[in-house]
Specification:
Number of helices of chain B: 11
Structural class of chain A: mainly alpha
Number of helices of chain A: 13
Largest sheet of chain A: none
Shape of chain B: globular
Helix content of chain B: 10-25%
Number of strands of chain B: 20
Strand content of chain B: 25-35%
Oligomer: heterodimer
CATH topology of the largest domain in chain A: MetI-like fold
Distance between the termini of chain B: 37 Å
CATH topology of the largest domain in chain B: Rossmann fold
Strand content of chain A: under 5%
Order of helices and strands of chain A: HHHHHHHHHHHHH
Radius of gyration of chain B: 24 Å
Largest sheet of chain B: 6 strands, mixed
Structural class of chain B: alpha+beta
CATH architecture of the largest domain in chain B: 3-Layer(aba) Sandwich
CATH superfamily of the largest domain in chain A: MetI-like
Largest interface: A-B, 23 and 26 residues
Amino acid sequence: MTQRARNWLLIAPSGALLLVMLVLPLSFVFVFSFGERGPSGGYVPAFTLEQYANLPARWTAFKNTLILAPLGTLAALLIAYPLAYQLAVRTDPKWKTLLLVLVIVPFWTSILIRSYAWIYILGGQGLPALLGSIGIENVRLIYTPFAVTIGIIYGYLPLMVFPIYVALDRLDMRLLEASGDLGARPMTTFLRVTLPLSVPGVATGCMLVFILLMGEFLIPALLGGGKVFFVGNALVDLFLQSRNWAYGSAVAFTLIVIMLITVTIYMRLIARLQTGREDVAVM
Amino acid sequence: MGGCLTSDAADMKYDRGVLNDMSAAVAELRHVSKRFGDVEAARDLNLSVASGEFLSFLGPSGCGKTTALRMLAGFETPSEGEVLIDGQVVNTLEPFRRPVNMVFQSYALFPHLSVFDNVAYGLRQRRPRLSRAEIAEKVSRTLEVVRLGDFGARRIWEMSGGQQQRVALARAIVNEPKLLLLDEPLAALDRKLRKAMQIELQDLQRQLGITFILVTHDQEEALSLSDRICVMRNGRIVQIGTPRELYDAPASRYVADFVGSSNFLEGRIGRITGARADFTGVSRHSFSGQAGPGIEEGATGTLSLRPEQINISRSQLDGGHPVTVQNRIFLGEHTEYVVRHDEIGTFIVLASRRAEDREPPLDAGTQAYIAWNPDAALILRAD
């Protein structure tokens, strides 16, 4: 067998899977988005731009997604970085594995159940009641953007911690010593050596979390209580409730385009930040 | 005595008075010990390094030489004793506050910065700030010194091992430290490049007048570069001296073995009279030799004999021992013989090419005689 044939054989299974599970459905979505809703739901072939013209009706969902996905990513990053730093740089190697396992322990329970737990924590009987007992009355937490953000941070933190941890764990400690030796204070060492060298991990983590957040629907549904709607929720609604496949396809396709654009810009930015680095590895 | 503190390193090399002058000490270790948990990495180190001196810590891995260096840099805090730099106790002073720079074993260059930015790193930490022009000027001047004038814009990973080594040097010396610490800086280079860099290092040290402290396990490197060598073993300093002193008058078998190579005979120390001692080998043969420091009559000891101090000939020599030539190795300027005495054992003999003018080289299997001047034999305590 030639090398070429072997290469093809190796990528054949994943290629076939991608074709059937991604390319084909996406093509359908693209085609459907120009069609019309059937009398009893579903799809009727047509060529109209009506669905796209109707997009502003779902503006709130887009707005929420485009605000809360980057915000959630940023919040997760700000919490994950110090945690990953502590784990990778400051922790005795013999404890590292145990602590890393603790980071993923929440994943052992379904996100549904974990998010339900937050409904109680943030709901009337939870934190607001506690705050009420110390005199801070009428705090509403559940079904607000704040609740959704909390849910996002909680759900996606491990995804952010791991790539950053890997980047920091690979960091040569002698570089930090060298920086100190050259007269840099610890804070300068962090800003000029540690942080730049962990950019690949930060980039990977943000990308993972951001992409997944753009399609998120469970957390806004549970903790946003129908008040904080994501595009994902709009899609659930359009495909499963009102069975308007054509309009749903237009919304889905628009989301894909937005994602492609933002991710491309993001990759460009990261690449520029890493100019000339041999080990550029965003994903 | 302070008056002879010139920047001329060549003069200083032979002026032991200056080297021992405590007031000129740039760095000092006073009864310094360092423990990591149960492991004692350094024990009761005492050392004074004079300004402008090139000192080496020599020893096998794990002997504590790197720990000593790291305590001077500030990466480790001594468990006991005092570390002084410029007459001030700096035991707990953070590395970034010390007027000391280090060249790391693996260079530890910043991969995300250009050659220029690596070298400028230390200058940019200075307060009050240096101007952009000043930094550029100092960096390019230093890059010239290490012969990397045109490489400022290069990325670290575009440089060869030898070039990276010079960037690491430039990054340290651009700060004009009081003390430059070098942790096995040449270990990663191939033999030829290492030789060339050794010469460069020595030139650089003379040119800059900076005090160098080098850590190495390579005796040849230590011998050729240093004004003084500090031989270490198991966390202790076993001997400090000039390369010549260590070679000619090692204090123990360990030093004789580590600095240069030697023939060793095990046995018992006999009568000691002044600078001379008698020695009886395990083969019952008796020898006379120079008494090493700290030997005691009747104690077990070692007779050390440098291979180049032994004469070898086909004809009987005065006080010669009969041997059989077992092997002859041509080493260019020298010929090495492995010879065997039936009772005393095996000797390595180094004959100069000159000697071959008088007598042609001996073949393996030849019967010959070896002899040496009793002054060349050193009788050392067992260690």
